[in-house]
From TrEMBL:
This is Heme-binding protein. SUPFAM superfamilies: GlcG-like (SSF143744). Pfam families: HbpS-like. It comes from Streptomyces bauhiniae.
């Protein structure tokens, strides 16, 4: 019997994700909080600038959690939760409520879901761009 192995998300990966998202945000003149979760939904790394709005930390964590749970960028899920959307009646009885605002992106390696990043503090479209840029830096 053969076993397929893959590399999980490491602390070094998380630090690269955070540094890349933070640099992209700073280049845009935005202060953000960044959360990185491992495949099990556990907090792997977190960064909140003192200048960031306090709630941006919870926002980035919930965006990452949503992207991880549904294995999709939160930007792609916004319409799905509107009335008549695929997830309109999705139960929210999970460990933490889902947040359908752009800025959460799943992280894959070798085709496997290994974690997620969430960015909060800018406009949703900006947060999505910062998170996406960070994920592409891992490849």
């Amino acid at each position: 019997m053969s076993t397929t192995t893959f590399a999980p998300l490491t602390i070094e990966d998380a630090e690269l994700l955070i540094a890349t998202a933070r640099r992209a945000a700073e280049d845009a003149g935005v202060t953000v909080s960044v959360t990185v979760l491992d495949a099990g939904g556990h907090l792997l790394a977190f960064r909140r600038d003192d200048r960031a709005v306090l709630i941006s930390g919870e926002t980035s964590t919930r965006k990452a959690y949503t992207a991880l749970q549904l294995n999709a960028p939160t930007a792609d899920l916004v319409e799905a939760v509107q009335p008549g959307g695929l997830f309109h009646t999705l139960p929210t009885a999970l460990d933490r409520p889902l947040l359908f605002i752009a800025g959460g992106v799943p992280v894959h390696r070798d085709g496997r879901l290994i974690g997620a990043i969430g960015v909060g503090g800018g406009a949703p479209e900006q947060d999505h761009g910062f998170a996406t840029e960070a994920v592409t830096a891992l490849v």
